[in-house]
Automatic annotation (TrEMBL):
GO terms for biological process: methylation. This is Class I SAM-dependent methyltransferase. It comes from the Bacteria. GO terms for molecular function: methyltransferase activity. Keywords: Methyltransferase, Transferase. SUPFAM superfamilies: S-adenosyl-L-methionine-dependent methyltransferases.
Length: 120
């Protein structure tokens, strides 16, 4: 899901071109659109830059969790230099969400990032 039509078209094209065996559903919408609240997904992926764009960290995460089926997972990825990991862990503690897995990727220090798997 992205509000940028070009990003959505490119992602949908790549899914088709690569013949992905389990393609993602691509939605060109805002995470805050009321019309998507009835849709539920097993996995929602959130990239760190996307959580910064709306300027409301908690509301963005709340919206992502609202999109998940019971037992679904949020995959959260962000650059380590933006200190989002600490903020994410505080949020998860306050919401009683379960951090299933946390991986760090620091092969290229200037682009170091983490990925967390969070269960609803």
């Amino acid at each position: 899901m992205d509000i940028n039509k070009d990003i959505c078209e490119i992602f949908a094209y790549r899914q088709q071109r690569e013949g992905h065996p389990n393609p993602s559903k691509v939605l060109c919408k805002s995470i805050f659109d009321n019309e998507i609240t009835n849709e539920k997904f097993d996995i929602v992926t959130l990239i760190g830059s996307a959580i910064k764009e709306p300027g409301d960290f908690e509301r963005c995460l709340d919206s992502c969790f609202d999109l998940l089926n019971t037992g679904g997972f949020l995959m959260f990825m962000a650059n380590l230099k933006y200190s989002l990991l600490e903020r994410l862990e505080e949020y998860l503690t306050s919401k009683n969400c379960q951090l299933e897995q946390k991986n760090f990727f620091e092969t290229y220090p200037e682009y170091a990032f983490f990925i967390c798997e969070i269960k609803k």
